[in-house]
Amino acid sequence: MKPILSVAALLGAVAHLAVAQVAVLHLQVIEGEGAVNAAGSHIARPLTVEVTDETGRPVEGASVSFHLPEEGPGGTFGNGLRTDVTVTDARGRANLHSMVLNRTAGRFAIRIVASKEQARAGIESFQYVAEPKAGTAPATSSKSGSAWSHGPLKWVVIGALAAGAGTAGALLASKSGNASPAPAPASTIPAAPATIVIGSPSLSVGKP
Fold first, then answer.
1. Are residues 173 and 121 in the same domain?
2. Which of 4, 73, 185, 204 lies most in the core, judged by the most C-beta atoms within 10 Å?
3. Is residue 191 assigned to a domain?
4. Which residues share a beta bridge with 26?
């Protein structure tokens, strides 16, 4: 005679089959959504997802795959590919720790798919590659250039002003009719009225 299954075993088998057929997975990102990452760097924080069943209980052992776009902003995972697969833990969570961003700035979507037996669920998580900052010249370089350019130029200007003042004094003395005395230094040139010299009288009346 063939062995007869007990009622309890039969009910258990039917219940397991029913759960496998009607199970529904729920997938959500609980950490790392909307992260902004520097161009050419690793992700700033891990991306964590949680898988639960239709009753809200965590699903352990679910397979979770991550997919990066083939072009545009994005990057590669730690395995050097644009696809990576991990498994949920006892809390129904799966973590993505390693991803290197490319240098194309903008928003991109990571497609995430969870599967357990016949149940599947999928979502998208959006991340950002930040615009690279424009480089600026070091502050020490600009200070050094200022010291070499402005310092000597200042003394050249002062010298030119002093020479111009001396030349003006010489021209004024020559117009006054007494060009023989050397012009006074620029620092001791008297005021304009004092530099006009008529000279000593040279008229003679003659004998009476």
1. no
2. 73
3. yes
4. 52
